[in-house]
Every structure is written in structure tokens, then in C-alpha cells.
Amino acid sequence: MLLFLIITFSIIVFDQITKVLITNTLSLGESIIAIPKLFNFTYVENRGAAFGLLQGARVFFIVITVVILFLVILYFIKKKPQSALEKTALAFIAGGAIGNFIDRVYLGYVRDFIETAFMNFPVFNVADCFVCIGAALYIIFVLCEEKINGKN
I need a labelling partner for 37 at 20 to 30 A (CA). Which of 70, 114, 127, 146 fits? Predict the structure, then answer.
């Protein structure tokens, strides 16, 4: 549980620091090139979910985040995961979810700022990255566990 808590807390701090840095550096809608032809920093306020879906559904996202975090904690209590990969995956998801949760509760929107320059993709943030990476790691964990245990 300690590994989970350390990773989760670190992600929350990292996410919030990056968001404060970007909002102190750029005005809403302003963009700067970070790495030419790779990505830019563009400050936007997202009042929806991933990719700007469900704009204005703040209460819905707050409730969903609380439910997901409750389920992750319940999972830790009931299953007592031993795998570092599983703990890390769940910590990535929880840390990212809490990072965006903080924005939604205190600001009413999520601060996004990472924009891909090489393809048309919605602007996102550090918390979003960790949720996606955590989900991918968890899928890898489940697939590896099934293979080890002889399940298809």
C-alpha cells in the first residue's frame, strides 16, 4: 500500500505543479512551441471529459471520480495486490484521476496544456497521461496474470 500511496501522491503533486506553471506562463488560448513539430504548450480550460466530451457535466465527473477512487481503495482492501505492476497501474490511474478531480472541484474545469503538433489530437495534461498509461499497464498486468495462471 505504501508504494501505491507514494506514487499516487507524487503524480498529484507533479500534475498540479505543471498546471500552476502553465497557468502562470500562458494566457487562456495562448500557445508556445515546446518541441518543434512534436508538441506545443497551449493553455485551454476543459469543462468536459477526455477529448472535450460532455461539456459542462462537472457534477457527473466529480461523482464518477469519487466512485472510481472508492472502488480502487476497496480493491486494495479486498484483494491486497502484491504485484508492483498492478500497484503502479492503479496508482497511476488514481493519481491522474485525483489531479483532474482537484481542478474540477476548485476551478470548475480541468487545465489542459499539452498539444501534439504532429497530429490533430485534443489538448491534454499530465494527469490524463498517467490515467492512460495506468490503464495500459493494468491491461498488461491482467493479460500477463492470465497467461501465468493458464487462462486464455
Answer: 127
